[in-house]
Design brief:
Elements: H1 2-8, H2 11-21, E1 25-26, H3 27-32, H4 38-50, E2 54-59, E3 62-67, H5 69-80
Antiparallel strand pairs: 1-3, 2-3
Amino acid sequence: MNNLFKALNDPTRRQILDLLRGGDLNAGDIAERFDMTKPSISHHLDLLRQAGLVESVKQGQFINYSLNTTVLDELLAWLMSFQKTESPSAEIKTSEPTR
């Protein structure tokens, strides 16, 4: 899970994830949208892949990237497990005077 949080911590990687919400892209298409070197983008994509957030498939000379939302679903389920749920017996009780 540390790789996941490390990957999500960087704004460039979050932007890449946003781009991939629109559909699969190859590394070159992703790199064109950023003002940084292709090796830097490749590094970001590799960290996203290691975290399981993206999947890569080599097709000819291109590597196509797509979102893997399964990891995000698992993260959300884990986070939601910390949410307090009210049980029916947790209704507000009025205090009665003691006799």
